[in-house]
Specification:
1 helix; four-stranded mixed sheet; four-stranded antiparallel sheet; about 120 residues; Immunoglobulin-like; elongated
Length: about 120
């Protein structure tokens, strides 16, 4: 009976060790994400429909804010990004130096200035 218990225990230990060595060798993810909200700089209200061009030396993507001013971009190469935000009724703005890191979601909230009325 002792021999059977010892044999089963050693088999279980070998199985656990094999599984642990496979997961320990799994590579970490290589991509990151960005999320945020775009708000009116005067009122703080979220702005829906803002077109964001998000660029870096390694890639460029476009996204539009939802009804609550939120945006999310998945699977970005780790790099430093520039955001260019456009929306009718607001000044176009560029925001530089936003970093993306592997296996992380960076939260970047932006503010846009309402356009000044032209002519009088």
């Amino acid at each position: 009976m002792k021999r059977s218990f010892l044999h089963n225990s050693l088999g279980l230990i070998a199985l656990v060790a094999a599984l642990a060595s496979q997961t320990a060798g799994a590579p970490a993810g290589t991509l990151g994400n960005i999320a945020g909200t775009v708000r009116d700089s005067k009122t703080g209200a979220p702005i829906a429909g803002v077109r964001l061009q998000i660029t870096s030396p390694s890639q460029a993507v476009q996204v539009t804010t939802d009804a609550h001013g939120h945006f999310v971009v998945f699977s970005l190469q780790p790099d430093d990004y520039t955001f260019t935000a456009q929306k009718d009724g607001y000044d176009t703005a560029s925001f530089e130096g936003y970093s993306v890191f592997a296996d992380q979601t960076q939260q970047y909230d932006l503010q846009l200035d309402p356009s000044s009325p032209t002519g009088s």
